[in-house]
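Structure in, sequence out. Go:
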């Protein structure tokens, strides 16, 4: 490679060179120079935190046709390619050096060959394009949570999305000086056809854990490209392990309790399991919807949102079920829609509660009702995983602590999954260890459209973080067990399941989650009792009856309570068998894991002998 500064001087005009060299960081200069040499852009734009630079990126996305303006001021639409609509799990891999073993459940490739492969694919990928260099950070700026990041991309849509999703950090980069302590992400959408990545067969997301560097190529979908989202989560999990904190796939919700108190809970649910709508419950506070950093301080757990915006699923958002976000998405502000249908400048999506147009433009191009794709499948009006991108401050109930460098005190953790007949709608674990093992680490959920897998298959997803785990599972579980060792105030672990079904019909209403979190809030403060079952502590009917009335103005019946909170013993036993088998094959699973699962099996069997296979909550 040419001398770094000489190379930068050749490719950058004076203004951009000055912006880059003002950051006196050799690793950064090398990263940019290396990316230029590899990707061969026509020009380079260095984006500072200035309004003018940020506006340049926003306009570029329109000028390049990656986004198109919609009727409402500030709204734009971006389309990803028809086959580039979700995270690509199979082509996302860790580059592992010799001697590193991440275990069987984690997708990895030998570092030397993976690096060669991805470099080959990236070679010349920015010819004819402008390279954009962005500085952003994870966690509130200048806080102990904060991680600086540099993203290079040739997609103005990716760079624009980051303006809405993260805090700018060019100024902060000045303060890190020559420190190598930042994440680097290099993305190219690759060759484009009709403005979408053409060579999706060569789509790759490769993560270099040693260099804290991610490569992403031949894709535009934000889950594969926006470096500070899932790409950095993979890096952050590893860094958290080194520094004894937790980087989690969690929302942070502030729940209003009696007497004006606000109690914060985090929640980890796989995609499309009600995570965002729980984080956004009307009347409560949203601190974050997807990525939480948790740290121990003074014997307590404090949490902060790694992000400051939302890349949320738009499917099923309507004025009745999600009034806050629906309002934000239908009034003037900066919003990027992706993969919805546009008809006469108006975005429409599945389940939006409005009359569906018969034609328009969507991720398949010009669309009409009944249109089929190359495989003969009917193309719905919009993709199920269609999304919106918006800054969190645009929500009426954004938590005022979003930028608080201290974070917020976390009193509860919720693990959510999707199953029809195993888990009750809401349950408290007996203690941290029981919760980590039987709720978090044992989480199973039916697959959804958020990844390119087949939908509806029950799959194992510990802490709903499996897709992003960058260390052996056993070590990750151990990290959770250890996290509370020095704590005086240990958060309570809960589990929820919004997807119980009886003869195909859902047993819980869309709004019921609001009652469950209010119940948790009262449990955290020890203000109501609970019933001990073999799998955890469940609500008393009278408490739920009162809460349904207070929170939702609904009459909750005993009949419904029994249906929802029946313990399905055989299904729970089968789940324990499955989980034991999985962890039996995981190298290094802590002994305590099998002990806690074994004790749960024992409790279930004893209860079964006494009350039968289906235990009503009134039986205990
Ligand atoms: C998820 O799928 O969990 C998301 C969206 O939050 S993505 O950015 O694709 O990860
Ligand atoms: Mn997510």
């Amino acid at each position: 490679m040419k001398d770094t500064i000489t190379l930068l001087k050749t490719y950058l005009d004076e203004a951009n060179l000055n912006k880059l060299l003002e950051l006196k960081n050799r690793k950064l200069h090398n990263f940019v120079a290396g990316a230029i040499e590899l990707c061969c852009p026509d020009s380079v734009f260095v984006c500072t935190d200035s309004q003018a630079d940020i506006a340049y990126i926003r306009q570029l996305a329109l000028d390049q046709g990656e986004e198109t303006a919609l009727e409402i001021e500030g709204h734009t639409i971006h389309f990803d390619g028809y086959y580039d609509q979700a995270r690509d799990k199979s082509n996302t891999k860790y580059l592992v050096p010799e001697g590193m073993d991440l275990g069987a459940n984690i997708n990895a490739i030998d570092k030397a060959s993976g690096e060669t492969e991805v470099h080959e694919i990236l070679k010349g990928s920015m010819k004819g394009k402008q390279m954009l260099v962005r500085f952003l950070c994870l966690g509130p700026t200048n806080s102990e949570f904060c991680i600086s990041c540099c993203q290079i991309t040739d997609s103005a849509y990716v760079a624009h999305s980051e303006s809405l999703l993260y805090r700018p950090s060019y100024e902060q980069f000045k303060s890190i000086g020559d420190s190598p302590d930042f994440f680097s992400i290099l993305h190219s959408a690759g060759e484009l056809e009709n403005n979408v990545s053409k060579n999706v067969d060569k789509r790759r997301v490769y993560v270099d854990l040693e260099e804290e560097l991610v490569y992403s190529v031949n894709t535009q979908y934000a889950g594969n490209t926006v470096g500070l989202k899932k790409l950095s989560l993979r890096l952050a999990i590893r860094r958290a392990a080194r520094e004894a904190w937790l980087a989690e796939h969690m929302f942070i919700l502030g729940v209003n309790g009696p007497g004006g108190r606000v109690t914060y809970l985090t929640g980890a649910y796989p995609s499309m399991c009600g995570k965002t709508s729980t984080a956004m419950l009307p009347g409560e506070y949203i601190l974050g919807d997807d990525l939480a950093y948790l740290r121990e301080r003074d014997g307590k757990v404090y949490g902060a949102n790694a992000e400051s915006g939302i890349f949320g699923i738009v499917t099923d958002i309507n004025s009745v079920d999600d009034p806050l976000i629906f309002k934000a998405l239908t009034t003037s502000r900066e919003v990027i829609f992706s993969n919805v249908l546009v008809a006469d400048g108006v975005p429409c999506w599945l389940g939006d509660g409005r009359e569906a147009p018969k034609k328009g433009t969507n991720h398949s191009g010009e669309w009409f009702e009944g249109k089929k794709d190359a495989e003969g499948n009917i193309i719905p009006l919009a993709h199920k995983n269609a999304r919106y991108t918006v800054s969190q401050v645009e929500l009426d109930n954004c938590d005022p602590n979003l930028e608080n460098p201290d974070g917020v005190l976390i009193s509860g953790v919720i693990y959510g999954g999707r199953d029809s007949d195993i888990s009750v709608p809401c349950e408290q674990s007996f203690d941290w260890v029981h919760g980590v093992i039987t709720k978090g680490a044992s989480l199973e959920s039916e697959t959804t459209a958020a990844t390119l897998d087949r939908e509806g298959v029950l799959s194992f997803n510990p802490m709903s973080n499996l897709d992003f785990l960058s260390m052996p599972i056993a070590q990750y579980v151990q990290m959770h067990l250890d996290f509370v060792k020095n704590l005086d105030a240990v958060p309570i672990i809960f589990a929820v399941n919004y997807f119980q079904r009886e003869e195909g019909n859902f047993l819980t209403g869309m709004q019921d989650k609001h009652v469950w979190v209010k119940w948790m809030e009262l449990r955290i403060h020890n203000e109501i009792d609970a019933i001990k079952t073999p799998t955890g502590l469940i609500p008393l009917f009278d408490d739920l009856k009162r809460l349904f009335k207070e929170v939702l103005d609904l009459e909750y019946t005993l009949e419904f309570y029994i249906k929802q909170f029946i313990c399905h013993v055989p299904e729970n036993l089968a789940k324990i068998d499955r989980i034991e088998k999985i962890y039996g094959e995981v190298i290094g699973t802590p002994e305590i894991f099998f002990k806690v699962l074994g004790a749960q099996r024992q409790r279930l069997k004893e209860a079964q002998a006494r009350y039968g296979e289906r235990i009503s909550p009134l039986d205990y």
